[in-house]
Amino acid sequence: MIVLKTARELSVMREACRISAQALELIGKAIEPGITTAELDRLAEKFILSQGAVPNFKNYHGYPATACISINNEVIHGIPTGKRKLKEGDIVSVDLGALFDGYHGDNAATFACGDISDEAQRLINATRESLYEGIKMAHAGGRVGDISNAIQSYVEARGYSVVRDFVGHGVGTSLHEAPEVPNFGIAGRGVRLMPGMTLAIEPMINVGTHEVKVMPDGWTVLTKDGSLSAHFEHTVAITPEGPQIMTKP
Ligand code: MF3
Ligand code: CO
User: 232: number of CA atoms within 13 Å, CB side?
Assistant: First the structure.
């Protein structure tokens, strides 16, 4: 069932999203060679709690941390650890959210650690841009497939591939709600978009094959061919005035 949110609900959710976005920004600014992913996680957790919110990934299906931090060929769901130090040239995908007053925010971005290769920078730029291409299509009267197709077309035209095994989603009083929002698909197909829908749109884009595998830790998702991967996500509300990005710091 797709839940449409009232203006009142959206205003609470905007607060959850603001906290999520600021926590993500905080990690982004702290990324530098030598810092561990556990240190980054702690920064975000402290901030979220200081805002009267709760890290919504923690304990979700047993997930042990506030953020997912996935480096280079890791696509998503990397578990922060004190043993993993960032290195110059890494690209670091951070995904996190906050639960505030019953509503969830969810967002992600891929950051550069120091100087990165041109190949890595191009991947990051294309993935970020594909998210905005998708968001443009998130207006009432359109369909989920319009979002999916805009993302897929943008990234495939640049030679990249779209991860198939994980998709975006509705978000609200649950972290994951209907509908699914794939990053690939056919324009004009799928669920009709309506005012009050809140969607987490989140392209996961690989340099090589779209295929992925899960590490023995049961969480970390890697590209099957070891190629680089990037991930950007916003929580977006569909309003009568068009798409509204809720996860802005
Ligand atoms: N990051 C996922 C999403 O954006 C959810 C993370 S699940 C967790 O939908 F268990 F890793 F937290
Ligand atoms: Co999400």
Answer: 21
